[in-house]
């Protein structure tokens, strides 16, 4: 699996962190509460610190320890040419499959700051293409928590063909110089969810970036994995 290649119409170059992905099955757990960053992108760190999530916790992902021990990938010449400073590694599976009304599946995401400077207010968004389930709504529920055992929070899944990393971005946090952050995503399909298949993009972006300023947008990066909604066997 490679870095997000579906957003070919993007005019945005993102920079400053490395994200690597792995997948594992997740069992049912308590429903989520409000997101840790309930305000719009650009909320200050002090304001976010006043948020008090009430979501219940669940057990850590069984693959967390092995995933955390994996080294961060190095930058490629292409990354540096594009100004991304972001590479994406995924595994051990080629993608994630959810079933309507079935148990959720989880994805661990590691953000690695490859720079010697702290990256401020790096928020995350999730996006699938408009044709994921044809002309139907994908009826997917996505949640996110700080691994290994943070609170689960709802993610505003964006369904659109254009690259829109700031849309729905939340959970902004600082990433220390050469530091890492591991986030876990939990994905499930409603009982009435149609079949679908497509790329689920995870975008890291500075929360207060100006989407019209190319240089201002250089503060995060993009990656993803193949997601499928398939009928139960």
Q: Estimate percent helicity.
A: under 10%
Which structural class best describes the helix and strand composition?
A: mainly beta
Uncertain parts: 1-55
Main beta sheet, described?
Answer: 6 strands, mixed
> Strand tally, please?
12
- How are helices and strands ordered from N to C? EHHHEEEEEEEEEEE
Please give the oligomerization state of what you see: single chain
N-end to C-end Cα span: 26 Å
> How large is the count of helical segments?
3
Radius of gyration: 17 Å
Content of β-strand? 25-35%
Q: Strand order, main sheet: write it out.
A: 2-1-4-10-6-7
| Bulk shape | globular
What does the average pLDDT come to?
74
Structure report:
The strands form two sheets. The protein has a six-stranded mixed β-sheet. Strands 3, 5, 8, 9, 11 and 12 form a six-stranded mixed β-sheet that branches. Strand 6 (140-146) and strand 7 (153-155) form a beta hairpin. With 233 residues, it is mainly beta. The protein is globular and about 50 Å long. It has helices at 45-49, 64-69, 77-82; strands spanning 18-25, 88-89, 95-98, 105-112, 119-128, 140-146, 153-155, 157-159, 170-175, 180-189, 196-206, 221-229. It starts with 17 loop residues before the first strand and ends with a strand.
Summary of the model, kept short:
The chain is mainly β. It is 7% helix and 35% strand. The protein has helices at 45-49, 64-69, 77-82, and strands at 18-25, 88-89, 95-98, 105-112, 119-128, 140-146, 153-155, 157-159, 170-175, 180-189, 196-206, 221-229.
Tell me the layout of helices and strands.
Layout: E1 18-25, H1 45-49, H2 64-69, H3 77-82, E2 88-89, E3 95-98, E4 105-112, E5 119-128, E6 140-146, E7 153-155, E8 157-159, E9 170-175, E10 180-189, E11 196-206, E12 221-229
Parallel strand pairs: 1-2, 3-12, 5-8
Antiparallel strand pairs: 1-4, 4-10, 5-9, 5-11, 6-7, 6-10, 11-12
């Amino acid at each position: 699996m490679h870095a997000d290649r579906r957003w070919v119409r993007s005019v945005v170059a993102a920079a400053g962190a490395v994200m690597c992905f792995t997948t594992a099955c997740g069992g049912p757990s308590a429903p989520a509460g409000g997101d840790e960053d309930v305000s719009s992108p650009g909320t200050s760190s002090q304001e976010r610190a006043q948020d008090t999530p009430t979501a219940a916790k669940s057990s850590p992902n069984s693959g967390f320890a092995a995933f955390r021990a994996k080294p961060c990938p190095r930058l490629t010449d292409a990354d540096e040419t594009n100004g991304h400073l972001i590479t994406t590694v995924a595994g051990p599976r080629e993608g994630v499959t959810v079933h309507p009304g079935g148990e959720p599946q989880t994805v661990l995401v590691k953000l690695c700051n490859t720079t010697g400077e702290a990256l401020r207010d790096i928020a995350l968004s999730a996006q699938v293409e408009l044709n994921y389930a044809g002309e139907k709504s994908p009826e997917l529920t996505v949640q996110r928590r700080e691994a290994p055992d943070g609170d689960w929070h709802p993610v505003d899944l964006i369904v659109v063909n254009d690259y829109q990393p700031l849309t729905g971005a939340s959970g902004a946090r600082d990433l220390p110089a050469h530091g890492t952050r591991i986030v876990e995503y939990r994905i499930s399909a409603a009982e009435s969810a149609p079949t679908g298949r497509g790329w689920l993009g995870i975008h890291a972006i500075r929360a207060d970036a100006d989407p019209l300023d190319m240089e201002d947008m250089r503060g995060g990066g993009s990656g993803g994995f193949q997601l499928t909604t398939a009928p139960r066997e």
